[in-house]
Amino acid sequence: MGLKKSLEYISESRLAMIGLALVLFWVVLAVIAPLLPLYDPNTSLEAFKKPLAEAKDGATYWLGTDHKGRDMMSRVIFGAQRVLIWATMATGIAYFFGILMGLVAGYVGGWWDEIISFVSNVLLSFPVIVLYIVIIAYLGATGFNIVLAVTFASAPGIMRIVRGLVLDLKTREYVFAAQSRGESAFFIMLVEILPNARGPLIVDACLRLGYTIITIAMLGYIGLGLPPPDPDWGKMIAETQPLGSFAGHMAIVPAVAISSLVLGFNLLADGLREISLRD
Amino acid sequence: MTDQTPLLECNNLNVAFHTRAGALPAVIDFNLTLMPGDTVGIVGESGCGKTTIALTIMQYLGRNGHVTNGQVLLHGNDLVGLNDSELRCVRGSKIAMVYQEPMSSLNPSMRIGNQLAEVLMCHADLNAQQARTQALEMLSAVRVADPVRMMNAYPHQISGGQQQRAVIAMALLAKPDLLILDEPTTALDVTVEAGIIDLIHEIASTYGTSVIFISHNLGLVRKVCQRVMVMYAGEVVEEGPVDDVFNHMRHPYTRALFAAIPLPGAHKKNRPLIPIRGQLPSTKDQEIGCKFGSRCDFYEASVCGRDQIPLIRLEDNPDQQVRCVRDTKIDWLSSSVDSSVSDDSGPGCPVLEVANLKKHYPIPNDTFGAFIRGGDLRLLKANEDISLVAREGETIAIVGESGCGKSTFAKVLLGLEAATSGQVLFKGKNLSGVGINERSSLTIRDLQMVFQNSFDTLNPSYSIGSQVARVIRKFGIERDAQKIRSHVFQLLDAVKLPREFADRLPRQLSGGQKQRIGIVRAFAGRPSLVVADEPTSALDVSVQASIINLLMDVQREHRTTLIYISHDLSVVRYIADKVVVMYLGHIVEQGTTEQVFAPPYHPYTEALISAVTDDYERRRIVLEGDLPSAINPPTGCPFQTRCPRKIGVICEQEMPPEKNLAGGHTICCHLDNAALDEMASVVSYRTN
């Protein structure tokens, strides 16, 4: 599907359009962040400025500054960049492994299925939060480790979805047709089956991106997030929460940022599901 | 009929569905007057608006369907525009409907008895005890095998035929004045269908219920109904008493429908099927004039292309109406049948020899008892002792009801399943233990399959062209991209599809067009043997004819051996040179088409032939009971539990021997030769 067709498709649902707008708002800001006339997110300027306050150099702190005097707007936008990069990467890698395991478990079946399903069930039986804390506390809080933790936590769930879809799709006659002309299992899984599973997987990917963003924010909040001094939405809330009584904006701004981005992904997912159910 | 007020009247009914593409008219100018006790059939192909009419009468069109004009009068009261609570009084108690798929009409989590009783408690205000008593009576009335057991059974515990009986019982419980049956037997096997049809027949006479019977099967309608309405693209094109319409059809569409169906007794060598060219016009483009015009042989733009064509009463028979302005000008007696295709080339040398093939599936026994004993396996015996020979250029039909193992046999042949034992010699090579991945690409190419379900025979994600190209590349016919493209075009030409289709996605094609691509895919590598697994069962009759013709054309051209798996005996009789009848994994009879369709029969074949609904008088043989499970097959003869000609203990104890009759005709039965010889023909061919 080309870009224009995809847009036409999404425009069939108002929910999906709102979601897409919210997501695109943050994605565009994150992409053009270096070009925007922003203060450096890690430089101390003036502490505790309210939103719209005037800066020393005559500019405006549109969203105020935090307790260390850093510009909130700059931190939120660069924070969006961080969280989007890592969340996309983490979800992408989780999907790679989830799809791989799901295809093998569903299509090949037998012992492969038993083993993959067993390992997945073991991983799923951990409370995710324990899994995150164990992995990150043990290996250290870096972007790579967050990706690793999210992969461990999400891949089993993705595997289950893919496995279910494959079990259904592999009984379709075009799969029999491919088998009866001697196609390899690899070809059938990737070329014949996977593209037909894309609908539910795209919806799930949107939802999962939202969850991963919450996860990264949560890890930041409990102090296991991306290493400082990079701005991290979760950490921004954690740091400024105690000061909320007289400088509430410092916690509210990142909180709204997280909610709006996650809401965007959720609405997009809901909208896409609505469209796919309609035809 | 003393009561002369009509039960149901539909006047100038027009129904449209509102979609994103605008309003689509689904039913145009529909008129019907139904007297109490009448049975009216509505026939037509899928998409012609039959079901929409049923739903309109029930006022159950859904959110986007609307009656744009006209009335539906029940006892003189208009149903259109009633609110939900008023409709609730009508639905169920005055009008009841039976749908196609019995399993989805029953609630899977409720016992049948409770579901039936619920109807009475809701509509007749009975208490639970009375309701159950009446429900039980009704179940006996629809002649289910064991009504008491049925009351306590869940829907999945009973067979499809029994389920449909339960659904009909449920519909009859509230003593409706009108019963609407929407393809009630389409999901059932022929031998089961015969019983249901008898039942429907009785209902009208016993309860005085009026019946609207919707079907695509002309033979069934003839058997069940007094009047028939033939629909095409939302319009009734012909209407009248069943015998008049069937014997003196006056609309080109009705006539074309009949020409497209293989008649019993007809064979490919003497009466080719005539498909209806083109396809159903989409109701979107509301062309003026005759809707059938684009597919009609008698179309004349100056007469047929103007205004709406009204339904006209025939001058010589005021009881029959037809929506054709040229009917008096058409010479209905002239035969449009082409001269017979002579195909004298007899079958050649054997291509496939199957000997004593067995396929058992192990079913893990997960019961606790089995666990204690050490986890023994149960066996599902899908194929038992299959032996047959197929020669070059020959068409062999494998016939049997669902679950008889015919599709398993196809999978074993193709190497998708490994045989348990036995031999499959294909061109001298033993393939029985050779899976598809161990076969050479030449063998794979040489042994291909056409699949059943035209809806998912093609991968929805890729264009037609790329899917055909994949086959060409895989079979190593061409390597160069340019040449592959031109080869794809050649193949599309061969199946009479336009070349633009190469760039279309499967969902842009109709069922018949998809099946053509399925045929292209199988025949692309010039195979010696093609297995066709019910290739037309999901298609309309007019399309079915063209697919069968196409299959036979390509077969004749390449002298391909065709193994045609089907449950449709008329088609089998038409297309096959040899017929193999299967029951519960066993071959019960095999021989040439003439031998199998004439006495002596195997008792099962006899029942199958008698169950075909068509124009001819048949001895009715309705089989008792259901197909036994292949996990736990009956001892002795597999058919002994249902056999009307069972001769005694020997049938229960011993597997019947294979009796060789004249000319390679074999029957597996304990009946002695004298008894077999005495059998009379099931069909008596009337000539009129």
Structure summary:
The complex is a heterodimer of chains A (279) and B (688). Chain A has 279 residues and is mostly helical.
Walk me through this protein's architecture.
- The complex is a heterodimer of chains A (279) and B (688).
- With 279 residues, chain A is mostly helical.
- Helix content of chain A is 71%, strand content 1%.
- A two-stranded antiparallel sheet of chain A has the order 1-2.
- In chain A, 45% of the residues are buried.
- In chain B, strand 24 and strand 25 form a beta hairpin.
- In chain B, 31% of the residues lie in helices and 23% in strands.
- Chain B starts with 7 loop residues before the first strand and ends with a strand.
- Chain B is of the alpha/beta class and 688 residues long.
- Chain B is built from 24 helices and 26 strands.
- An 8-stranded mixed sheet of chain B has the order 6-7-8-3-9-10-12-11, with helices on both faces. Chain B has an 8-stranded mixed sheet with strand order 18-19-20-15-21-22-25-24, with helices on both faces. In chain B, strands 2-1-4-5 form a 4-stranded antiparallel sheet, with helices on one face.
- The chains are: A mainly alpha (279), B alpha/beta (688).
Give the helix/strand layout.
The complex is a heterodimer of chains A (279) and B (688).
Chain A: H1 3-10, H2 14-32, E1 53-54, E2 60-61, H3 72-108, H4 110-125, H5 128-139, H6 143-169, H7 173-180, H8 185-193, H9 198-221, H10 233-240, H11 249-278
Antiparallel strand pairs in A: 1-2
Chain B: E1 8-19, E2 22-34, E3 39-43, H1 50-58, E4 65-74, E5 77-78, H2 84-90, E6 95-98, H3 102-105, H4 112-123, H5 128-141, H6 147-151, H7 160-173, E7 178-182, H8 190-207, E8 210-215, H9 218-224, E9 227-232, E10 235-241, H10 242-247, H11 252-259, H12 301-304, E11 312-313, E12 321-322, E13 350-364, H13 368-373, E14 377-391, E15 395-399, H14 406-414, E16 421-426, E17 429-430, H15 441-446, E18 447-450, H16 464-474, H17 481-494, H18 511-523, E19 529-533, H19 541-558, E20 561-566, H20 569-575, E21 578-583, E22 586-592, H21 593-596, H22 603-611, E23 617-618, H23 649-653, E24 658-660, E25 666-668, H24 673-678, E26 683-684
Parallel strand pairs in B: 3-8, 3-9, 6-7, 7-8, 15-20, 15-21, 18-19, 19-20
Antiparallel strand pairs in B: 1-2, 1-4, 4-5, 9-10, 10-12, 11-12, 13-14, 13-16, 16-17, 21-22, 22-25, 23-26, 24-25
Helix pairs in contact in B: 4-5, 4-7, 5-7, 8-22, 16-17, 18-19
